[in-house]
Design brief:
DNA polymerase, domain 1; globular; 157 residues; Ubiquitin-like (UB roll)
């Protein structure tokens, strides 16, 4: 059954018709061409598909398109549109947090939610905030370093 949904996607008002059982990850990647979010597991275990919905990290592989109605959605494609997103991307690059890169879109979106909290965070709080995102390459140290740096830089402003 087709349904019409309206939401804001990366600051752009969006209206489209889609099957009521369409997963958000498929809507983003296949229907809208936003391929930054990755489907690693399809079961909510890896976090590679993390997006922000109304500012909160959500797993696009576990959401249905109908759940986007009336929401503000941000994907990794919009990361460079904000100062905190730019700081985060720079920190990931300069701290050497990216290896194979598959997990990075989800890691950066979960990290963006942490940075936006506006409070200094301990390494343990950062680890907890990223606990839903798996990385097979880095050992997490450089990822945590990156988020710690971005949080500190954001708190200075």
């Amino acid at each position: 059954m087709q349904m019409k949904i309206q939401f804001t996607l990366n600051s752009i008002p969006t209206e489209l018709a889609c099957p009521s059982d369409r997963r958000v990850i498929d809507l983003l990647r296949e229907d809208l061409g936003l391929t930054g979010s990755k489907e690693g597991c399809g079961t909510g275990e890896c976090g590679a598909c993390t997006i922000l919905v109304d500012g909160l990290p959500k797993l696009a592989c576990l959401m249905l398109a109908a759940q986007l109605e009336g929401t503000q959605v941000e994907t990794v494609e919009a990361l460079q549109q904000t100062e905190e997103g730019q700081r985060l991307m720079t920190a990931f690059a300069e701290e050497g947090a990216v290896q194979c890169g598959y997990c990075i879109p989800g890691m950066e979106m979960a990290s963006l939610a942490l940075v936006r909290q506006g409070d200094p965070l301990s390494r343990e709080q950062i680890k907890e905030g990223l606990s839903g995102n798996l990385c097979r390459c880095t050992g997490y140290v450089k990822i945590v370093d990156s988020v710690e740096r971005a949080v500190k830089e954001s708190c200075k402003i």
